[in-house]
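Materials and Methods. Structural model of Transporter substrate-binding domain-containing protein. The 272-residue sequence of Transporter substrate-binding domain-containing protein from Pseudodesulfovibrio cashew was retrieved and submitted for structure prediction as follows.
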Amino acid sequence: MKLFRLTTLLTIFCLAALILGPAHAARAAESSQLETILKRGTVKVGFDTFKPWAMKDKKGDYIGFEIDVAKKLAEDMGVKVEFVPTKWSGIIPALLTGKFDIIIGGMSVTPKRNLKVNFSLPYEFSGMSIVASKSMAGERSTLEDFNTPGTKIAVRLGTTAAEAAKNFLPKAEKLYFDEESQTIQELLNNRVHAVVASNPLPFNLANEYADQLYLPLKEDFTKEPISFAVRKGDLDYLNWLNNWVRVNMSKGWLQNRYHYWFFTNEWENQIQ
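The predicted structure was written out as tokens:
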């Protein structure tokens, strides 16, 4: 009887090993990108320059809200940070091909982007606004005023500003540019009526060029969640990022840095 029981147990064990073994081995072989980062000792961060999210200071170093976030993230991981500047239009393909470990670049969550990447919990929210040329736009003060044939709107290619302009200003002519600086130059040179961009850029431009530009709208016309973007299927990595957001939001660290970069000009002397 004992021999029978022992044989039965061995049979069950062997069957379980056959069934569960491959799955267990496969899971073991799949290492989280978080483990890769920790072993490497460096987290590679993809981003593009958007003032004041990320920009170069007078020494040529990167500064800005997202730069602070990336440095804090690396510090809490116990690793160094390597910044990988990448054109916005190609930043998701670059993430997917492994050029870097994460996008920390003021990226808004959209269903289309979410088909390609996983997003963390939002660590900030951004809204779209309009900054207009006084000489070109006159006294226009509503979205409807800019949604007319013959109105030219400059936006950055591949951004949610481009989507917002398409959806909210379908009748206006949209001009797309790779760089934010190009949209600003078009506006200052009176080649477009307005620029659509996420605040605080419109707000800062209207203050900096008060004799040429103004803010037609009193409030942002969208509100968009900003999140980390990582490659799909890495639950450990995403779990760590989500909890990083929760902890640094609860401590007020994220709000503190956002206020510094978006509602003060204490950093302006670092770039001028």
